[in-house]
Amino acid sequence: MRITLFARQLAPYTISFLQALAARGHRLELIYEPASGQAPFRAFDLSCCERAVADGDRSYRRAWLRRGPEALPDAAYIAGWTEPLERAAGRLLRRHGRPVVCGIDNPWTGSWRQQLGRLVAPFRLWPMARAAWVAGAPQAEFARRLGYRWVETGLYCADLEAYRCELPLRQRPRALLFTGRLVADKGVDLLVEAYRAYRRQVESPMELLVAGTGPLAALTEGVDGLHALGFVQPDQLPAWMARCQALVLPSRDEHWGVVIHEAAAAGLPVLASEACRAATAFVRDGDSGYLYPPNVPALTESLLRFHRLDDPARENMSRQSKDLALTWSPRQQAEAFEKLLQRMTRG
Asked: What keywords does the record list, in alphabetical order (predicted)?
């Protein structure tokens, strides 16, 4: 099957999905946004695609819309509905009977914007796609409220092979890891204050590694035990996870958070806020990590609870975290997308 994928900026988990899809015999055309200065990723290997275009000025998408029916793909995936040219592409494909899937990672919150979206969906969203591929259960509720006919979960998946780590937790350095943009939504200020409070209450505190850049970077300077790594290339992140004993993600707002799946694949217990929606799939509170409200006292208590665990308890958390990660793989992700297209074709 010839499939066109309209994507935003690429990430390693995008590539592992494309590779799994190509391995199933599909011919892929990828149209994506170039990397921004905020996340200066090195170039990805896109050899699994017959054509891959970084379309920063949208000229390729404009030319794409002039294609005749014989040049159109058999199916398409569109990442969201914000790009007018991509909405036009979805309408064009549907007029010619091609299945189109819209990707959604926004969870249902009941905001006035989402309520308005429910009203305009029949006119703005349904003409471009009647199927939604969503990150998880919180997003599935939103998609159903928008009236999509077909809704499938599993939009995101970590590259399990890249993050696999067989080193027992007790043999890794005594360190915690945060990775992400250094912005308020990620809870960086909460992390720094909670880490300071944690260090005051224990002997031999664990170190904290902070990977990322952003406007709140100054908060990570001059903090005892905190090591700011700056921007870390995606292919280097598995090695950093192998040097830690837990991931800490205290986000105030996190639509999903693939890094939780990645950390679990590396065998890390995950200390995530309740705002991290990926935790609904990849964290079991008290078993594979801890969940907490995004505030300083709750995060401090989670850090203290993890610190007080003995080695066998941490190893048990690590095993359960890894088991949760293995419930969803790029191969399963590609199969789910393929089955969704088949369901749409059958009507």
From this structure: Transferase
pLDDT band at 38 (very low <50, low <70, confident <90, very high): low
The token pair that represents 310 in the structure block: 């003995």
Specify the amino acid at residue 169. L
Q: Which CATH number fits the domain 2-157+328-346, given the four candidates 3.10.20.740, 3.40.50.2000, 3.40.50.620, 3.30.1380.10?
A: 3.40.50.2000
CATH of domain 161-325: 3.40.50.2000
Q: Which of 160, 149, 145 is nearest to 126 (CA)?
A: 149
Alpha carbon 313 to chain centroid, angstroms: 28
* Residue labelled with tokens 């199969």: 335
Q: Which two tokens stand for residue 345?
A: 């074709």
Distance CA(266)–CA(321), nearest Å, equals 9
Residue 117, classified by CB atoms within 10 Å of its CB into exposed (0-12), middle (13-18) or buried (19+), is middle
Residue 240: burial class (beta carbons within 10 Å; 0-12, 13-18, 19+): middle
Instruction: Please determine, for residue 207, whether its predicted confidence score (pLDDT) is greater than 90.
Output: yes
Proportion of the chain in helix, strand, coil states, percent, rounded to 5: 45, 20, 40
Same fold: 2-157+328-346 with 161-325 = yes
pTM of the model: 0.95
The vertex-49 CA angle with 105 and 162, nearest 5°, equals: 65
Give 126-166 pLDDT, tens digit per residue. 999 999 999 999 999 999 999 999 999 999 999 999 999 99
